[in-house]
Amino acid sequence: MTRELGRASGAAARLECRREWFARFFAALGDTLAPRIRELEGGVYIPLAGEITRRSGEPELWILETLEPSGEPADPLTLPFLPEQTVDPPDSSRLPAADLETVLTKYVFAAAEPPRWVLLFNTGQVLLLDRNKWAQKRMLRFDLAAILNSPAESERKATAALLHHDSVTPAEGACLLDTLGESSHKHAFSVSQDLKYSAREAVELLGNEVVWYLR
């Protein structure tokens, strides 16, 4: 993909070139790229690269993309939407004039019907964002170059498992990420309890030793 991007001229051509690769990437994860425009409150346009909805029609997951202004790596959250992403309708003046971190806070997760999940990507990174954890800026960040070039197959398997459609937005039951988060919380609580009792036991032992020496 990097070689083809280097030959593409202009943002529109680079977006189109890159989408061919990411279409296959997301298809392997069970998702589909279908670029379109979503109008939010106040007439603001959000260019979606893809969307998954609930049975009721409400959004469950949005796929958003950004494009680095140069070939240098950049955090997707620091980049804005580009006019070339508004193919239909071609009114780029209604794009939010802000970076994606601000767009997510002010427009996407604050919408009347916000998605629970957002997959945000650019050439080098994929971010999985949960609306319930966005206030703490907690997210999963995947460095594509490091993962794809790693000799460890386990990294690619873990990435596929965490980003797969059935793990994030399953048709039935709780999603894998919620299950993992709940298990992690229980484990952390258990560790905290063990530490508390161990600390109390240590204090009691030290206290008994002090009393023994005083006597």
Write up what this structure looks like.
The protein is an alpha+beta fold and 215 residues long. It has two domains: 2-173, no CATH class; 174-215. 43% of the residues lie in helices and 16% in strands. It has helices at 2-7, 11-28, 100-108, 144-149, 153-163, 165-168, 176-214; strands spanning 36-39, 45-48, 50-53, 59-65, 117-121, 125-130, 139-143. The strands form two sheets. A five-stranded mixed beta sheet has the order 3-4-5-6-7. The model is unreliable at 187-192 (pLDDT under 50).
Structure characteristics:
single chain; 215 residues; alpha+beta; 2 domains; two-stranded antiparallel sheet; 7 helices; 7 strands
Quick synopsis:
The chain is an alpha+beta fold and 215 residues long.
Describe how the helices and strands are arranged:
Elements: H1 2-7, H2 11-28, E1 36-39, E2 45-48, E3 50-53, E4 59-65, H3 100-108, E5 117-121, E6 125-130, E7 139-143, H4 144-149, H5 153-163, H6 165-168, H7 176-214
Parallel strand pairs: 4-5
Antiparallel strand pairs: 1-2, 3-4, 5-6, 6-7
Strand order of the largest sheet: 3-4-5-6-7
What's the tally of helices? 7
Helix/strand order, N-terminal first: HHEEEEHEEEHHHH
Averaged pLDDT, please?
84
